[in-house]
Amino acid sequence: MNAGSSSPARARGTRPFLSGAKRLLSLPIVALAGVVFLVAPASQSSAQEEEGNVSEKLSEAISAYLDAKDELAALKQQQEDLEQELDDSEAESAELQAELEKYAYVASTTSDFQSTAALMASGDPQDAIAAMELLQFLGESRADRLNELVTRLAEIEATRETLADNIEQQEDATEEMEAARDAAARELAASGGDDAVGPTASDAPAAEPFEGESNGCTEDDPTNPGCLTPRTLHALEQAQIVGFTRYVKCYRPSSFGEHGKGRACDFAAQPDGFGGDAGGDDYDYGQNLAAWFVENADALGVQYVIWYRQIWMPSSGWKSYSGAYGDPNTDHTNHVHLSIRS
């Protein structure tokens, strides 16, 4: 069976999921909590016991790509902010230059001595004193304003230089991102990964973006004894909230891969555990879930998704998965594997 295609029967099979998800979302929170983290029977086979993993080198290459992508996005946002500031500053600069020219004209056509002599000749000493004080104030205020204008013009020029530096950094970040992307592609190619057509669009609601810090395996794993990173727990909760409530296991001790780091979960296609190859509604469920993770990759911080002998990575899209060994666990034909970035 081709995991990248879906028959009309399969396409119709996604509708009950959405209506079920809507019914689930209408449940009270307390009731929802009771169905979110399901526990499989002890005799149920575990995909985590024999699951093939993406190589450590490939995982690191994907992570490097995502880090470089984030850096590039931040630099691009900074450039947009600087360009807006520069546009505003250019308009302000024109006004300041006009003001400086006005001050220069006044200074060249006005004599404080002549003005003071004329006021003193008016015959009213108080008016003369007030006039001289006003002239002194105007002189000081003009000097202060002149200093402000000079300072602001220097700031505008500094903004221009910062923008130029930012563009140069952005070019370097782009090169780093492309190098990381190519490294990930080479690592996958070495394992025999070919282009593939992944699952079609999901009909589940969008995920809420993760906010905050995700430093380390600090949160209790509600699916298994162990811990999860805050970002991974958020992805798990979001998947359950929108209606993907079938059996799931996340943490397991491991010296490689993301499970032992609290950054991966296995979502069973069958309702109550990891069984044989998913078919019918179970297959549709897996297709829907895998597509949903891809659609919400940025919001959730997805590093890669494996489902039905295919792997999705943000650097290359869907590829055939070469870590399959002919059984439902390593072929990932009975569960969707989700890895979350650190």
Automatic annotation (TrEMBL):
Print the keywords alphabetically. Answer: Coiled coil
Check the record and name the Pfam families matching this protein. VldE
Q: Which residues form a coiled coil?
A: 58-106, 146-187
Annotated spans, Disordered? 189-229
Give the signal sequence positions.
Answer: none
Location of the ARB-07466-like C-terminal domain: 226-332
Q: What is this protein called?
A: ARB-07466-like C-terminal domain-containing protein
**Species per Swiss-Prot/TrEMBL record:** Glycomyces luteolus
